[in-house]
Write a structure and sequence with these properties.
This protein has 432 residues and is an alpha+beta fold. It contains 16 helices and 16 strands. It has a domain at 46-221 and 259-381: Cytochrome-c3 Hydrogenase, chain B. The strands form six sheets. It has a four-stranded mixed β-sheet with strand order 8-7-6-11. The model is unreliable at 327-346 (pLDDT under 50).
Length: 432
């Protein structure tokens, strides 16, 4: 029998294989998608282009790239956006989380647990679950399109604010839609909380944004479950990216070992900061946290769908109580700076030379955008580290542990695919 078997990984976002060495009980995860070279594309372009170019890295999480990019530029220029702007961005990220988690859970992961080759068969076998998925996916789309101008690749976001703000009636409609989907989110938790997940326990290092009293999303230091924290500006000292032969994606490590980012890390580290309904659902579940089973990332994503619906409702309450009641300020970014398109004063914003870091929680974990901008407003250097790059080494380490469960090669190959899917890797992001 062959010692090493390459296996194509189905039902993930992108293309890759895993080479399983059954004799040595090791595996090598290889990303085969062509390099996209977005970092090189940005060099020499005006900073205004960056949020809209980088959102094209991914069709699943474009809003995350867009907002991380804007945060990096604002860090260079010393721009502090208003509370209203930050709340609207957070609301968009809530929509991004819902969008992405629903796509992964129902269309990629669910078939592993209900005996289907494709989620499309749900339309006949269980149309109620299919409608549940569509309801939640539509909710995420509506949030982002209502604020960003369309459901993917936002149009209205810009340095310091928005080129167009949603109306009060639009914001109230979004709140109604969020409230109407709470029951769907609870049903999703019940569905994914009752699957028979493979038994695998391997404690690794878990990392996420950390801001006291807040569930991670928009701001903070980078925290580890070992209690350490570091400033996002020091990420290059903490995270090592390695280039390997046979793979077009880099592999992230910290202190010579893998680590995990994403929903499981966030819930493990910040379950006490979950919103009330999500916290209760987690407490009532038979799956207990902290969990060191990577398959439970699926359940953590289900918990987060409800959490971010609740968070969206809270954010809209703050928006409606605050600056939305005042004069609406609209700006449009142009190469010369911000063009004023209302009666309000322009933002206090000047192009200046420097380096800036933008970090947010994307659906799959910490996303870093790092730009160096020249006096002319053009990008001189760019580095982006995506969550999937950070998770790749840890996936391999989990596979090695998984291979100890059984000697049945067919079963191992099945479980390895399920494990990789549970991480929800975004291959197009990894080869940015």
């Amino acid at each position: 029998m062959k010692r090493i078997i390459p296996q194509y990984i189905a039902k993930i976002e992108g293309h890759g294989i895993v080479k399983i060495d059954f004799k040595e009980h090791t595996a090598q995860l290889q990303v085969l998608e062509g390099e996209r070279l977005f970092e090189g594309i940005l060099i020499g372009r005006n900073y205004i282009d960056a949020p809209f170019v980088t959102s094209r890295i991914c069709g699943v999480c474009p809003t995350a790239h867009n907002i991380a990019s804007i945060k990096a530029i604002e860090d260079v220029f010393g721009v502090s956006p208003s509370e209203k702007t930050v709340n609207l961005r957070k609301l968009m990220l809530c929509g991004q989380m819902i969008q992405s988690h629903v796509l992964h859970l129902f269309f990629l992961a669910l078939p592993d647990y209900v005996g289907l080759d494709s989620a499309l068969f749900l339309t006949k076998k269980d149309p109620a679950k299919f409608r549940l998925a569509l309801n939640l996916k539509n909710l995420g789309d509506e949030i982002i399109s209502g604020i960003g101008g369309r459901a993917i690749h936002p149009l209205t976001t810009t340095v310091g604010g928005f080129s167009k703000l949603p109306s009060l009636s639009d914001i109230r409609k979004l709140r109604n839609n969020l409230e109407s989907c709470v029951a769907d989110a609870k049903e999703t938790i019940n569905l994914f909380g009752n699957f028979n997940y493979p038994e695998l326990e391997r404690k690794t290092e878990y990392m996420s944004l950390h801001s006291d009293g807040e569930y991670p999303l928009y701001n903070g230091l980078i925290g580890s479950d070992n209690g350490s924290k570091f400033n996002p500006k020091d990420y290059k000292k903490e995270i090592t990216e390695t280039v390997r032969n046979g793979s077009t994606a880099k592999y992230g490590e910290r202190s010579n070992h893998g680590f995990m980012v994403g929903a499981l890390s966030r819930v493990n580290m910040h379950r006490d900061e979950l919103n009330p309904l999500a916290k209760k659902a987690l407490k009532d579940s038979e799956i207990k946290f902290p969990s060191y089973n990577p398959f439970h990332n699926n359940f953590a994503q289900a918990i987060e769908i409800l959490h971010f619906i609740e968070e969206g409702i809270k954010l809209i309450g703050a928006i409606l109580d605050g600056e939305m009641e005042k004069e609406e300020i609209h700006y449009v970014a142009e190469p010369e700076g911000l063009r004023h398109v209302s009666e309000a004063k322009p933002l206090p914003h000047k192009v200046r030379e420097g380096r800036g870091i933008g970090v947010i929680e994307a659906p799959r974990g910490n996303l870093y955008h790092d730009y160096e901008i020249g006096k002319d407003g053009k990008i001189k250097d760019c580095n982006i580290i995506t969550p999937t790059v950070q998770n790749l080494t840890n996936i391999e380490e989990d596979i090695r542990e998984l291979m100890k469960i059984t000697n049945d090669r067919k079963e191992i190959r099945k479980l390895v695919e399920m494990l990789i899917r549970a991480y929800d890797p975004c291959i197009t992001c990894s080869v940015h």
